[in-house]
Amino acid sequence: MKIVVTSIFVEDQDKALKFYSETLGFVKKHDVPTGEFRWITLVSPEEQEGTELLLEPNNHPIAKEYQKKLFEEGIPVTMFGVEDVRKEYDRLLKQGVKFTMEPTEMDNIKIAVFDDTCGNLIQIIQN
């Protein structure tokens, strides 16, 4: 068994698609109409056949509340691996990304947390 798709709730699918593809550098894999919304997935440019990230609309009240509470508590909804947290932090800062945690060392890892502009906090990690 393996993880094929994982999802995050977003407030606006178009805004999220732009942020995750243009700012973060993920590659759009699917963009299929599904009634009022779309099935939009992205993949890492290094693993285009790997796990897909679904940008799921938060139109359900429970989804909105879940997303809001995680954000308010400062809890990242997911984690992306990077080779160099400081380098990625600097690159994203230049693109206007707002960080809630600067690169921080914890034991043998480095992490940072940023706001995805779509209602989520995202953590990046360097092992």
TrEMBL record:
It comes from the Bacteria. Residues 1-127 form the VOC domain. SUPFAM superfamilies: Glyoxalase/Bleomycin resistance protein/Dihydroxybiphenyl dioxygenase. This is Putative methylglyoxalase. Pfam families: Glyoxalase (PF00903). It comes from Lederbergia lenta.
